[in-house]
Design goal:
Elements lengths: L2 E9 L5 H9 L17 E7 L2 E7 L9 H16 L2 E7 L6 H10 L7 E7 L6 H14 L5 E3 L8 H11 L17 H16 L9 E9 L5 E9 L2 H8 L4 H18 L3 E9 L7 H6 L10
Parallel strand pairs: 1-3, 1-4, 4-5, 5-6, 8-9
Antiparallel strand pairs: 2-3, 7-8
Helix pairs in contact: 6-8
Length: 301
Amino acid sequence: MTKCGFVALIGEPNAGKSTLLNRMVGAKVSIVTHKVQTTRARIRGVAMEDETQIVFVDTPGLFKPRRRLDRAMVAAAWGGASDADIVVLMIEAHRGITNGVQAIIEELAKLEQTRRVLLAINKIDRVERETLLSLTEQMNGLYPFLETFMISAEKGHGVGDLKGWLAKHLPDGPWLYPEDQIADLPLRMIAAEITREKLTLRLHQELPYQLTVETENWEERKDGSARIDQVIYVMRDGHKGILLGNKGDTIKKISMASRAELETLLERKVHLFLQVKVREGWLEEAQRYSAIGLDFKDGNA
């Protein structure tokens, strides 16, 4: 008898959701950087455990939205939680119960009473055992979590236990995806996310949140390689200069890093071409939101 179901990972930005998703799936399907709010779309990663297919929804980090893009991201996160069979709230052990965590717990209480919610305390290697036990007790006093797991998504500690529990408690049913499929995102969007990650890692100011990447063209060549054309949209001419760098040095390094990862992912040669275009109002264009898997209407105040 096969099992299959949806698991939503929710939490504050940088709680480690993308790292956990990639660890569970066994491949990189969600971008992971030191920057907060890097996950924009609800990325579904597909993991197998015995006869169970676990479909993970890696939601954007929950935070107080200010702009349309922020509001659309938060709406996507709660949409993922509402649709899931099981919700996993991730918190950081060393940060404890922040105002953001308390706000998430208040919202969780509004979901259907039948919703099954687990607590995953991440980055356990950063605190002492006594602190972990105290945090577990406090969190379970705030919300009736079904189970609590102490994990390190980065190092893999406790992740197997969490994955095993999920596999046992998802509903009976046929698999939704082929056994060898790891994500339901189109390759064009995964490629764009990989380039966006390289941009985020390379640029250390506010700029990454004011740009987006779209795969404009994907051409399969006769020699087995792929030509990928991507456009990076920025909001100001000054941003374009930062991206290009001195004599195009910055964009070249970003392109090289993205191409190398794409070749590893696709297991073949990739010809990557990046263009930088200025579109002052891209944050208010419905088409840009669709391209990154968000609903433009959800960004309305």
